[in-house]
Amino acid sequence: MKNEKTISVATGPSPAAADESAPAGWGLVVVWSAEEPDRVGEVALLPARGAPRVLGRGEPEDGDDEPRVTFVRQRPGHMAGTRPLSDPAISRRQLSVRPRGTGGLEVERLGRCALSVNGAIVDRGVVGEGDTVAVRGRLVLVCVRRDAEMTDAASFPRSAAPRFGEADDVGMVGESPAAWRLRDQLAFAAAAGKHVLVHGGSGTGKELAARAIHQLSPRADGPFVARNAATLPPALIDAELFGNARNYPNQGMAERPGLVGQAHGGTLFLDELAELPAELQAHLLRVLDADGEYQRLGEASERRSDFRLVGATNRPLSAFKDDLLARLTLRVELPALEARREDVPLLARALLLSAAKGSPAAERFVRTGDGGRLEPRIDPDLIEALVRRSYATHVRELDALLWRAMAASVGDTVVLPEELRTGPRQEPTGEQIRASLAREKGNVRRAALALGLSSRYGLYRLMKKHGIAIEPDAEPEDP
Fold first, then answer.
1. What is the pLDDT of residue 369?
2. Which domains does the chain have, with CATH numbers?
3. DSSP helix/strand/coil, 374
4. Can you tell me the distance from the alpha carbon of 346 to that of 349, in angstroms, rounded to the nearest whole number?
5. pLDDT of 428-447, one tens digit each?
6. Among residues 119, 40, 140, 23, which one has the least CA distance to residue 348?
């Protein structure tokens, strides 16, 4: 096409398979859909190499032998095909998608809706891991590396799997391979019964992981006792951990069981455990031995607590005393959001629904969709920005960004706040406008849709700017 615009934004993905038969390939995951929000999390699996495929609405027509992009709901050891796209605004032949080996995916617009890559309107683009592809105003996808099959879960029971895209019974949200690996690791740790160290960046969900270990374990009916270890006073650490006898150290002092005693039969979660200096970490060594032996202050007799310790930190393991680290038998590493970008919209949905449930200020951003399913109203530009973003504090940061976006939104849709804009949205050129009007036979509404504009009035403004007149014999506007 003479006036096409091509952009290359491949971001150096990991090595791909050498041929089409190899399992490692690419995926396009639905992260936003105007008409079918329940599809968020579905993936179109593509080989590393092969013929181009057509992405579009509906089933192929008679005589159409072009391979098509199809979506599935992929889970460990299980994959369910889903219905074709049904959004009437998407053309039957909307995009061509060609795998390019380690070079990502080449996408090209075929249909009337505008194509954008990472927010820029183009006719053709090359995308790599983490890049977004949008059929403007209708559908947003993120490019990921994805094997043809997700490894089956060894410990997490399939019967405990939630409805697709929803939170599971322990509150975890995500359909990415990273999310399902984490579920399996937590289920193994829960069943193993050993002391556990949960390691991950700030905001990756360390307490949620600790509660999951507790709830999935035989100790689920016992207490879950949580404390930030950094708040334990150095001079009172033994009293805080192990408790004290009545009237000790001062007359009238009440008897206290301590954290270890409170957790008997259950789980003790100590967040920021590595913040304890090495000499204070040593106070935990004896009680973490197999018999759980400890002594309350002011008592001569020994006590035993049947508890499991789950410690958490975002610091390097070198911050631990070797003896303490040796007693934390199992390690669970929490993935960063960058390792599960396709889960960001599902997490955003869960956070917005939680906000609406707990705060009247957020209620207006939620609607009741098909089948009574609650869906937040989120602008696709916001979803794209959140999916592509690098996070310092992960889910905590995502939650804060959503609140600030809600505060900046004047309607009933959560829109992209100024702080997330990386630059002005690229508006269509005069040539692109003329070409779109020609394709749509002068129908301004459809031409605006094809250019990714929210309404025909925006196109009228641009036509005036570029000196483009409406032909007097133009096809009438659609109602």
1. 82
2. 1-151 (2.60.200.20), 158-333 (3.40.50.300), 338-425 (1.10.8.60), 427-479 (no CATH)
3. strand
4. 5
5. 778 778 878 887 788 888 78
6. 40
